[in-house]
């Protein structure tokens, strides 16, 4: 999917940097009746792959099982400039395919998540992974397409 506002498009490297920097993304799936479902998830981005953890059952997993095509959106800077009738923003939209990963990849992804969100508590995080791994699934999104945009009227 192409960005409509080419003047606001950011390049692939900037898009990847925002994916690495942001902490929460919106995972969008569709159920078997066509009902969209968007849910915020903490995630990590590594090697053109997005990983997030979740419970072993739930709405998003049911949707992914029926249709593994997903959309994942993150945003960074976001400020309303009331006097200019605009907003500063930066965002990335990813289209890809999601699937639950197996044990070795699951453990690696959980370690990456601990490293991103609790880097000062790696020892405790690894112990937590050991205790909670059987109650947790990890889903990976293989990126098919990615686009990014930014609006910063201060730089114009």
Automatic annotation (TrEMBL):
It holds the Pfam family Pyridox_ox_2. This is Nitroimidazol reductase NimA-like FMN-containing flavoprotein (Pyridoxamine 5'-phosphate oxidase superfamily). It comes from Alkaliphilus hydrothermalis.
């Amino acid at each position: 999917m192409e960005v409509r506002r080419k003047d606001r498009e950011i390049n692939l490297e900037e898009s990847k940097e925002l994916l690495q920097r942001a902490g929460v993304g919106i995972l969008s799936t569709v159920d078997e009746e066509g009902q969209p479902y968007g849910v915020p998830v903490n995630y990590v981005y590594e090697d053109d792959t997005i990983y997030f953890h979740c419970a072993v059952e739930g709405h998003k997993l049911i949707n992914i099982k029926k249709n593994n095509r997903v959309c994942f959106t993150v945003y960074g800077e976001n400020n309303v400039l009331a006097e200019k009738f605009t907003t500063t923003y930066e965002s990335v939209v990813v289209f890809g395919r999601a699937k639950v990963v197996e044990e070795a990849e699951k453990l690696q992804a959980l370690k990456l998540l601990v490293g991103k969100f609790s880097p000062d508590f790696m020892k405790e995080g690894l112990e937590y992974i050991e205790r909670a791994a059987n109650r947790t699934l990890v889903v990976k999104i293989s990126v098919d397409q990615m686009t990014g945009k930014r609006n910063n009227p201060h730089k114009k």
